[in-house]
Design brief:
Blueprint: E1 2-5, H1 20-29, E2 32-35, H2 47-52, E3 56-57, E4 67-72, E5 87-91, H3 98-106, E6 110-113, H4 128-147, E7 155-157, E8 160-162, E9 166-170, H5 174-185, E10 189-193, H6 199-205, E11 209-210, H7 233-247, E12 252-255, H8 270-274, E13 281-284, E14 302-304, E15 307-310, H9 320-337, E16 339-340, E17 345-346, H10 350-356, E18 359-360, E19 363-364, H11 367-370
Parallel strand pairs: 1-2, 1-4, 2-3, 4-5, 5-6, 9-10, 9-12, 10-11, 12-13, 13-15
Antiparallel strand pairs: 7-8, 14-15, 16-17, 18-19
Helix pairs in contact: 1-9, 4-5, 4-9
The chain binds nicotinamide-adenine-dinucleotide.
Length: about 375
């Protein structure tokens, strides 16, 4: 069983899908690991570190590989020489990169999309969306604080008092919860909103103030596996009114709202931005999925009405070392949980296998792509 670790080629991608720790653990399972030269260079892992963990460093890492690990989906052309039916284990962006998925099928690979990991308790340690969103929520607040020309905490000084920043977090999933916690640690006064009623308790438990649409019902219970869906027009109208009333008093807004397989919901309009104080900062974590904020652009600081609107195409790539270490562990936790000692390779079960498998036997087989 040969496992190949790719050097990422996508622009702006700094992460790597393995760490010296996971290389050692794969070898302990009986696999051999080959790493492309420089694969960890942007994540503070040198070729020497990988070699010391037992990996072979090779430009031909893919040659003869049975499992190929990536952060993002590799270019199908870069996989020539891999074994027939080899697994591609990465964040494959199945809806955004459909042509690439079709190419994996045509080449006979078994592509496993890690973002399709089901949200069940036993898969939590394999969930790349959670591990990466958590870090992204943290970094969004740090970046917003950095771009803000004032302080976050209240300070009483001999020269006078600096008031605490008011921070509003929209979307309280994994990223939003970490954004609330980070903003609180920095000393901001934090409020937050979501469409899922279950988040109200979580917001309170982090010491923030819940701001919820009361006139129209949101999503009760766990809905579609804990994910949000598109809201009714009536809800959207009520939410827009609520945001208009609240946002003018905020200094920092962090938006994180996503709907799987769809464009991100628009939560803040240009007219609402115009009501904010000049010098305020909005960080749009959904910018790569179309954006929660009107006018936000990936990797650009857009200034509207004196308000800075920030958003990165790939936020976890801005904390490459930690993001890689956690991503690498997610992949190891996934493959090792299914490792069959006798066969010397992982054998997936139906629940998780069918959820993440996109292609097999030359065809696209995943329900979410076929339906
Ligand atoms: P996400 O990234 O899909 O969305 C971020 C947040 O935006 C969500 O809380 C969502 O409800 C919210 N949102 C969507 N549309 C909105 C709108 N119009 N207005 C305001 N907010 C909106 O979500 P996520 O971070 O992946 O987490 C979703 C849920 O899944 C959470 O409850 C999380 O704890 C749970 N989860 C479970 C597991 C597991 O059990 N394995 C793993 C990860 C997450």
């Amino acid at each position: 069983m040969r496992i190949a670790v790719l050097k990422e080629t996508a622009s702006g991608e700094t992460r790597v899908a393995a760490s010296p720790e996971t290389v050692k653990k794969f070898i302990a399972l009986g696999a051999s690991v080959a790493v492309e030269p420089g694969a960890g260079a942007n994540a503070a892992v040198s070729d020497e570190d990988f070699a010391a963990a037992g990996a072979q460093i090779s430009k031909d890492a893919v040659k003869g590989a049975d499992i190929i690990l990536g952060v993002q989906g590799p270019d199908p052309a870069a996989l020539a020489g891999a074994n027939p039916g080899a697994w591609i284990v990465a964040g494959l962006d199945p809806f955004g990169q459909r042509a690439r998925v079709d190419a994996y099928a045509a080449a006979g690979f078994e592509a496993l999309a890690m973002e399709f990991m089901p949200r069940i308790t036993r898969a939590q340690s394999m969930d790349i969306l959670s591990s990466q969103s958590n870090l992204a929520g943290y970094k969004a607040v740090i970046e917003a604080a950095n771009a803000y020309g004032r302080a976050f905490p209240m300070m009483m000084t001999a020269a006078g008092t600096v008031s605490a920043a008011k921070c509003f977090v929209m979307g309280v999933g994994v990223a939003g919860l970490q954004a609330i916690a980070t903003a609180r640690r920095l000393g901001a006064q934090v409020s937050a909103t979501d469409v899922r009623s279950a988040t109200r308790e979580q917001i309170l438990s982090l010491g923030a103030k819940p701001i919820f649409v009361e006139s129209v019902a949101g999503i009760e219970g766990e809905g579609a596996g804990g994910y949000a869906t598109e809201m009714s027009e009536e809800y959207q109208k009520a939410q827009a009114e609520l945001v208009s009333a609240h946002i003018a008093k905020q200094d920092i807004v962090i938006t994180t709202a996503l709907i799987p397989g769809r464009a991100a919901p628009r939560l803040i309009s240009d007219a609402q931005i115009a009501t904010m104080k000049p010098g305020s900062v909005i960080f749009d974590l959904a910018v790569a999925q179309g954006g929660n904020v009107e006018g936000s652009k990936p990797d650009e600081v857009v200034v509207r009405h004196g308000v800075k609107i920030i958003g990165w195409a790939n936020t976890p790539a801005h904390l490459a070392a930690d993001a890689s270490a956690l991503f690498a562990r997610n992949l190891y936790n996934f493959l090792s949980a299914f490792w069959d000692k006798e066969q010397g390779r992982p054998v997936l079960d139906e629940e998780i296998g069918n959820a993440v498998r996109l292609t097999q036997g030359g065809k696209v087989v995943n329900e979410r792509l076929l339906g």
